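Table S2 (continued). Query chain:
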Amino acid sequence: MSSSNGTSWNFTLLAHHELNGFGGMGEGMSIQRSRDGRRILWLAHESAPKNFTGIDVSDPRKPTIVVQTELPHQQMRSNSLEVTGDIMAVAYQVQKAGLQPAGFELFDISVPEHPRSIAFFDASGPASRGVHQLWFCDGEYVHMAAGAADFTPTHPFDDQFYRIVDVKNPTRPVEVGRWWLPGTRQGDGHAPPKRHKPEADSGFRAHNTNVYPQRPDRAYLGYIDGGMIILDISDKASPKMISRWDNSPPYDGFTHTVLPLFERDLLIVTDEALWEDGRDWPKLLWVVDGRDENNPVPIATCPAPTPDMFKPNSRRMGIHNIHENVPTPYSWQSDQIIVGTFFAAGLRAYDISNPYQPKEVGSFVPAAPSRSITGAISLNDVFVDERQVVYAVDRHAGGLYILEMNF
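Corresponding output:
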C-alpha cells in the first residue's frame, strides 16, 4: 500500500501515539503484565526531558499513557531499559564524561502509575558517560555497556565496556565481572587497536550485551568498531573472549546488535547507520554461520534498502536494531523472521528460512512526523510481543507505531 501518509507492505498500522509530544525514543522497549492484568509497554527516551513512558497496550488499537517521568537534567538520556516481573532497570548516559547521575536505576513498577526507585548503581567517573545499554532478563544480573570511575580509556571514544552487576538483592546492586577489548584501557598491557578512518571512528566500545537462557555461559556483544564478540561468562568474575568477527574495514564499523539463533547455529548482526544523507550506505543486516563459535563466518546479508528511496535530507539510511528475541514471557520468539528498524527506511521484515538467500517480506515507512527535525521518519527500535503485535518507535518525534504482521 502506498499513499501520502507513507507506504506499507504486509504490515497493518493499528495505532499511532505521539506520546504527548515527547516522541523522541531510544532503544529500550519492554512489556510488563501488571497485577491487575494490563499489558504495559515501557519505553526509554533518546533525549531529555523525559526519562521513560509507560503505555497501556492491552488493546493495541487504543494505546493509553499511564505514566511519563522526567530526567534529573537536560544533559542526559535514559535510552535503554528492560523489565523482569515488576522490576525495571533503566540506563542513564550523560552527554559529557564526569557528569552525574550516570549508571542505572532499578524501579518497582508493581503499580505502573507510580514507579518507585529501589536502587541506583553509579557508573559515573572522570572518563565515564555512564550506561548506554543494559540487558536484564533473568531477574538476577544486569549486563551492560558502561563506563566506570576506575576505567581510563586509551582513547576517549573507547569509554564503555562490558560489565556484569548482580541484582539478586535489588536494593544492593554489586558488580561481579567486567571485560574490555584488550588495548582499550590505559595500563592493561596491550597495544591499542588501530583506529578506523577519522570519519568512521566511533570507538572500540561495547554496545549491546545480550545473554540468553539457552547459553547462560555466553555473552554476545556488539562492540561498535570492534565488531561482534562472543564471550565465555561461565565464570562471571573473569569473562574470556571466545571469538571476534569484524567486517570493518572495508566497511564502516559500528556493530550494534548480535542475535544468536541457537537451534539454527546462526548469528544475526547489525551495523548501525550513522552518517548524514546516507554517506555510509550500505549499513547491513548480516547472517553469520555460528556452527563453530571459534570461527564465525558471514554467509549472507539481507537486501538493503536503496538510496533512491530516501529524501535528500534524511539523516540516516540503514539498519539500526532488530527484535532481539528477548527471553521474557511477553516477547515473540522467531528464528525464521527478522524484523528491524532502518531509520529513514522505516521498518522491514526478512524471511531467513534459507539463510543463504534472505528475502524481504514486509515494510512500513510512515510519513515524516510533523515535528521531525530531518523532514523524514527515523524509526529507531522495534519490539514484537508474543501476540505478534509489532511496536516501533521514532528517534526524533514520531513516537510509537503499533502494527500487525500480514505474513
